[in-house]
């Protein structure tokens, strides 16, 4: 099978009409540095997201997995370092489900670290003039849930590939009616993902 990298974004949620994570992924090329780029949109739904992701991993056996999600109000690209074993939603997901104070996996580890070169990705983004940080919390909603499931699945199955999560801000079209809310342009997000992919290929593959 051809060498590949799986990159996923989410469907819009919480009253938004678009989700910048998947919008940005659409503009990535289909191949980067000889790796096929597999693009997938995942439902913002606790109980659907994991199966959708794992099926694609089993079908394509990618060499790396990058999950991307919207972090409304964030002022930088947030390269997530860690996923924690808790679901604690403050709004319903797209399936009307709102878990509170629930473990993701009974008896699972409290937390699992990203296996992406997070610091190197941040450094390369900053060198390119893109605001970026290493983030120590992916929240407790669907994004953290899927990141935790991904890292847990890979560990359980002894699949040693780089995998992790990137949270991105709103884009301008989402904040025209929100006052004092940070936004960036879609191009900056696509460029962020392109730099992240190239960094992963160089540092971890
Ligand atoms: N962001 C949400 C879930 C889907 C998305 O794009 C989150 O941060 O959990």
Structural class determined from secondary elements: alpha/beta
Small ligands present: pyroglutamic acid
Biggest beta sheet attributes: 7 strands, mixed
| Run of helices and strands | EHEEHEEEEHEHEH
Tally of individual domains:
1
What is the annotated CATH architecture?
Answer: 3-Layer(aba) Sandwich
What fraction of residues sit in β-strands?
A: 15-25%
CATH topology title: Aminopeptidase
Question: Percentage of helical residues?
Answer: 25-40%
Shape: globular
Measure the end-to-end span. Answer: 16 Å
CATH homologous superfamily placement: Peptidase C15, pyroglutamyl peptidase I-like
Q: How many strands?
A: 9
Global Rg? 16 Å
Low-confidence stretches: none
CATH class: Alpha Beta
Overall pLDDT: 97
Which sequence of strands runs across the widest sheet? 2-3-1-4-9-5-8
Q: Total helix count?
A: 5
Structure description:
With 205 residues, the chain is of the alpha/beta class. It has one domain: Aminopeptidase, CATH 3.40.630. Helices cover 32% and strands 21% of the residues. The chain has 5 helices and 9 strands, in the order E-H-E-E-H-E-E-E-E-H-E-H-E-H. It has helices spanning 20-26, 46-60, 118-127, 142-156, 186-204; strands spanning 4-10, 31-32, 35-42, 64-70, 77-80, 82-84, 111-113, 132-135, 163-168. The strands form 2 sheets. The chain has a 7-stranded mixed β-sheet with strand order 2-3-1-4-9-5-8, sandwiched between helices. A hairpin with a 2-residue loop joins strand 2 and strand 3 (35-42). The protein is globular and about 45 Å long. The mean pLDDT is 97. The chain binds pyroglutamic acid (PCA). The site of pyroglutamic acid has 12 residues, from strand 4 and helix 4.
């Amino acid at each position: 099978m051809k060498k590949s990298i799986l990159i996923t974004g989410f469907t819009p949620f919480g009253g938004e009409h678009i989700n910048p994570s998947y919008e940005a992924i659409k503009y990535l090329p289909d191949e980067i540095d000889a790796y096929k780029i597999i693009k997938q949109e995942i439902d913002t739904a606790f109980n659907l997201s994991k199966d959708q992701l794992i099926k694609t991993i089993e079908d394509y056996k990618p060499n790396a997995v990058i999950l991307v999600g919207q972090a409304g109000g964030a002022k930088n690209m947030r390269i997530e370092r860690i996923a924690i074993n808790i679901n604690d939603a403050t709004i319903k997901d797209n399936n009307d489900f709102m878990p509170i104070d629930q473990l993701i996996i009974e008896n699972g580890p409290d937390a699992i670290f990203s296996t992406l070169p997070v610091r190197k990705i941040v450094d390369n983004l900053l060198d390119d003039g893109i605001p970026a940080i290493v983030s120590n919390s992916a929240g407790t909603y669907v994004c953290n849930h899927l990141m935790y499931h991904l890292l847990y699945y890979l560990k359980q199955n002894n699949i040693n590939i780089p995998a992790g999560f990137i949270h991105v801000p709103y884009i301008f079209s989402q904040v025209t009616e929100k006052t004092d809310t940070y936004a960036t342009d879609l191009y900056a997000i696509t460029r962020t993902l392109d730099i992240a992919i190239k960094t992963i290929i160089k540092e971890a593959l």
